[in-house]
Each structure stands twice: as C-alpha cells, then as structure tokens.
Amino acid sequence: MGSADSKLNFRKAVIQLTTKTQPVEATDDAFWDQFWADTATSVQDVFALVPAAEIRAVREESPSNLATLCYKAVEKLVQGAESGCHSEKEKQIVLNCSRLLTRVLPYIFEDPDWRGFFWSTVPGAGRAGQGEGDDENARPLAESLLLAVADLLFCPDFTVQSHRRSTVDSAEDVHSLDSCEYIWEAGVGFAHSPQPNYIHDVNRMELLKLLLTCFSEAMYLPPAPDGGGTNPWVQFFCSTENRHALPLFTSLLNTVCAYDPVGYGIPYNHLLFSDYREPLVEEAAQVLIVTLDHDSATSTSPTVDGTTTGTAMDDTDPPGPENLFVNYLSRIHREEDFQFILKGIARLLSNPLLQTYLPNSTKKIQFHQELLVLFWKLCDFNKKFLFFVLKSSDVLDILVPILYFLNDARADHSRVGLMHIGVFILLLLSGERNFGVRLNKPYSVRVPMDIPVFTGTHADLLIVVFHKIITSGHQRLQPLFDCLLTIVVNVSPYLKSLSMVAANKLLHLLEAFSTTWFLFSAAQNHHLVFFLLEAFNNIIQYQFDGNSNLVYAIIRKRSVFHQLANLPTDPPAIHKALQRRRRAPEPLSRTGSQEGASMEGSHPAAPAEPGTLKTSLVATPGIDKLTEKSQVSEDGTLRSLEPTSQQSSADSSPATEEPDQAWREQRRLSSVSASGQWNPTSEWVLSWKSKLPLQTIMRLLQVLVPQVEKICIDKGLTDESEILRFLQHGTLVGLLPVPHPILIRKYQANSGTAMWFRTYMWGVIYLRNVDPPVWYDTDVKLFEIQRV
C-alpha cells in the first residue's frame, strides 16, 4: 500500500474517532487496527494528521474512545514485547503505537481529571497472555506501558543485534534473554562495542521519545516550594520491577559518553556521511537526566527491598536510593569508567569550541545543556567521581567549555538557565581545594573568546570571564554575582600568581561595588565588597610571594580602600548618595577597566534573536542557603562552621566572622517604606561597616606605600617594571596580622536547587524537542513559555 494511501486511511480513522459520539467497543479490531496495522506513517505524519484540537475534542466529548485508543495502543506494545517483534508487520505496529502515544499523552497530562487514568487498571484486562481477564493481577496501564517499552529496547533484530548465527535457529526467547549481554555501547561495565546499525538506532530513538513523553507528566504540575514529590513514571521505571534497569542505564550512559561527533576523527567527515547517531545520543541524554531527577537533599537513602543490590557497581557503600538509576550512578567506582565518562563529556562540551577555530570541521552538537545537567548529577551523586575529576588537570577540559558558554551567553536573555548551571557547577567544584590548585596551570588553548587578551593561568581566564559577565551581562544575572565572587573567594588561597590583567579586573570590581550609591541602594550589595576583600586577604596572607601584580594593583588603587574605611554613615550623606543613583541607572561603569583588545577571531556576545522562545525558571536560593561554611584546618581538613555546632565567637578571627549577625540585623535596622522602597539607615551602615575586613590591606599599604614612593622619588621612576621587581623581592613576614583561617563555602544540596534543576531541565527538553514538537502548545504548568 502506498504511503499516500496509508496516510489517507490513517486520517480517515482519526476523523471517525473524533466524530463518533458513541463509544467504540474495545473488541472492534477492524476499527482500531486502522490506527496502526496498515499504515506506514512517520512520527512527523502522526503529529500532522492528529491535530491538537481533535485530541482535546475526543477527550472532552467521547472520553471512553480516547481511553480505549490508549488502552489498545498499550496492548499492542505489550503484545510486541511478548512476541519479540519478529515480522516487519509487528515492528511497524509497535512503532505506530509508540508514535500515537507520544502524540496523545501530553493531552492526557494537561487535564487533571485524566491524570490518574494511566495508573488505574483496565477492567477485564488481565496480564497479557493469560486471557482470563483476572482483575486481581491486572497492572495499571502505566506500568504495562513502561515494562513493554523496556523490553522492546532490548529486542533482538529490532533495537539490538541478534546473537543468533543463523535464521534457522529459533528466535531468542525474550523472556530468558539476558539484556546485560545486549548493552548498546561499550564503556561502563561493558567491553564490546556492537556494529553500528542505523535501523536499530532509529527504533531506539522512537521508543526513548515515548519514554520521555511518559516522564513528562512533571511538566504539567506547578513548581512545588518543597521540591515536589517524586514522578510516579520515573519511580516505577527505575525500580526493581524493571528487569532491564541496569543494562538500560548503562546503555544510555555509554551511548552518550562514547559519542564522537567529529566523524571518527577525520575532520569534515560529517559533510560526507549523515550522522544518524546524534539524535539517539540527544534522546539518551534527555532520558538519562530525567531519570536522575532525584532530590538528594530531602531523600534519606532507603534500602532496595531491605537488601543491598548486587550490581557491577561498588557494593561497599550503604545501599542507595530506591531509584536504581541514581543508585547505579552513585556506585560507579572504577578509574577506567570515570576516565571514559569524563573524557566523553569533556569531548562533547568542547565541540562548540572546536567550531570556532576550525569552522565546520566537526558536526556542531546542540545538547551541551543536557550534558551540563548530567555532569552536575554525576558530581552531586557520586563523590568519588568528583574527586577523580579534580585529581588531574582534566578538570580544566570541563572548566574551559563552561567559561566559554558563560561568556558567550552573558548578553542573551533566553540563556539565563545556561548561565546558572555553569556557575552552579563551578561553585560545586570550587568547594574542593584541588580545584583552586588546578587553576594555576598556564592557559595556552586559544579559544577565540570576546575577552581581553592576557598571558596567564586558568585562574586568570576565570577572573577575566567573571569580570566580563558582571560588567557587561544583562540585569537578570545580578542574582549570580554572589555565586561568582564566592567561587573567587573559594579558590583565592591557592592562586600562586595572578596576571596584571586579572588583578586589574578584581580591583575594578571592588571600585564599582564600593561606590556609595551601589552600597546603599540594596540590602545585599555590601556582601560583594566583603567577598572581594576576603579574596584579597587570602592571597596576601597565603600567596604573597608570587602575587606582585595584585599587590601593585592594590597600591595603585589604594584610594578605594581608604574610601571604604571612611565610608560616610550620617543620614544626609546616605541621602545624597542615593540621589546620585537616581541619575545613574547603569549598575556598573566600564570606565577605569582598561578593556584592551578582544581576542582575534572572537565575536561579541550577542543578545537573543527577537522572538526567541524561552522558559521561565524558579528563583534560586540565596548564597547562604546554597552553601555552608567550612574552615580549613592546618592539616587541610575541613570543619563545618554552621551554627548547628555551638562555637564561641572567640573561635574565629574578625575576618572570617563575616557580618553574619549584621545581615540578620539589617532587616531590623533598616526600614522598608510602604512603597517597598529600600531605605538604608545610619545604624544599618554602621552595623556592617565596622566589620569590613580591612586590617590586612591597611597594614600592607602602611608598610609598602612609603617604600614604593621612595623608589619613585629616588629614581624618578614612572616605570612599573622596577616597582614590580621591588615588590617581587619584598616580604611582609612578621608585619601582617596573624593569618586568618581559610574559609570555604561549599555547595550544599537543598530542595530549592532541586526544584530549580527540575524546571530548568524540563524547560530545555521542551524547547529542544521541536521535530516533532511533542509538548508545544499544550498547557504546561511547571514553567511559562515566553518570547524574548
């Protein structure tokens, strides 16, 4: 039958379904088979031939027909899984049912009255193959659907290579088949890489799209303040009920991490061969991150059926959460597995960067946001992986792409989510000492980026990019400033030698943040000054010797520190400063920052094209909720400084005893007027001004400024190099206050970030699935779709 005919017949069946007001019996196979038996429709055809308005009409006007359609389609999938799909006809039926369910499910989810439908049992539908219609052991439709999809993903000659040598051999029995022998790709826990098979990849992709659609019920529930409950579809699919959980988890992970878009190492190869693997890899990455959507903050780790699960994973740890995908991810422990995962993710994240200096040499991938979520989950759920990442300079292969994305997206309103996840990952990494140490590696890769040219280390690159984000990003990024500067503070004690460019950038930020109108214009702005002072103190106390550039920059800009020490606190001065603010709308001036030429071959960060779609995000928790403070002891171990442990205030030095009380006080001391306008008071300014950690820097200036001035007078110098040479050999041993303990703010999991990740992840998936547009124009509740 020609495909034009089959489309026509399929369309006729759809019209019949929408116009029949009488319920059609489930036994009327002649009617129902029209939807899947004789048609050769692509998923795009199904979306075109089943319009949204008609699905909603059937849902409202003949609900029993929609229910029967879903039930019959699931029944066909179950039959296909039972039989093993040997004939072409059976395979076609499975694919058609899969496409039809992908089309219809979002319209079931958007209506609260229908939401329980898939979790109810269908009367008279016993377990397939039993036929007695014994309701006792009837499974909810959702469970039957999920188990059938899992079976079909390991179906020989349909989604995996058959292991039978001859066709005469009896077909592999789907029930006794050990799917661990059919893992899709070599990598974690599997050494054999099957022959690539285009047809199998396409079939897997269709089934994964259906799976993702099942999981997408989460999109139709509004964001819950406490992080929300678990997704019943994901919960069941990732439970011990699914006998393929381990091989499927491994197949998805390996498929993503083994993918090489370069075209098998030959530049420009992708122009000759169409790459059918990429859509599968994307789908696999999306399904993987959704199955790993698990709130680690609220979950205690229950055992699986009260016992530990014996897997190819590490069994020394206590049993992990019931979600087996999270459980398996957290138990990966072999070095070679970590290496495979890290190399794979780094290779894919670097792909857009390769584009910039060898245009079109490789296929450009688009799923870097999914990869960042996956990397985040790996680090969050598997601490051994996090330590492995930081053990060598391989972490820089993740850092550089993240900085590239942050710099590239800083002017684009539609990519605020990407900015957040990049910063969150760096915050997580910065809580570990090794990250700061790794940053000292010289930066030689010349990825064209719209930043000033500099010679230096990866620390310089990080500081220069952060400065660019703060001074030339858009307003919606302001909530991230605390995070960016917290990262700088966390790494500062380990930075051996900042370049002059980076040192000037840090001082320019201090200058911009310590203007009176900026300090007085919002309740939290002074935190930024505290962070910068803390970073300077760490470098002066712990890395003075190699940091003559920073010391010189501090001496040159000494007036900024004197102004801070003499900050006016009387009401008229505060009033005057705020008047100035009304005239100066720009949050930060770029003057005095000596921008310098950008790197060759770079393009300025572009705003979003007008009309670009974006999804809204929930607010992220403040830095005090995002992190917990720890103190680094002499031996390098961390000790939590959270208020839970009652310590005496004598325990910490003035510099670390940050203005915490002041920050709690400030709401009490300052008045918020009826209009909601922030009104700083003298008491409020005094409450934190007295805690500014200026002692170390003031002492440094007191000792060095007269010496530097003397050199200039004696030698009539205007040349920096002589002064820098003097500072390089200078020492402040015994002249500075006693070094304060190093304070690290480590990321801590909390339900606020869990909810943020959920909305971000589903927003990305919503926007990236445009062909077919699975969720487009349905009534999603988790986020709003906005146009830039």
UniProtKB/TrEMBL annotation:
Residues 297-313 have a biased composition (Low complexity). Pfam families: Hid1 (PF12722). One of its GO terms (cellular component) is Golgi trans cisterna. Residues 297-317, 572-613, 628-677 are annotated as: Disordered. Residues 642-655 have a biased composition (Polar residues). This is Protein HID1 isoform X3. It comes from Odobenus rosmarus divergens (Pacific walrus). The lineage of its organism: Eukaryota, Metazoa, Chordata, Craniata, Vertebrata.
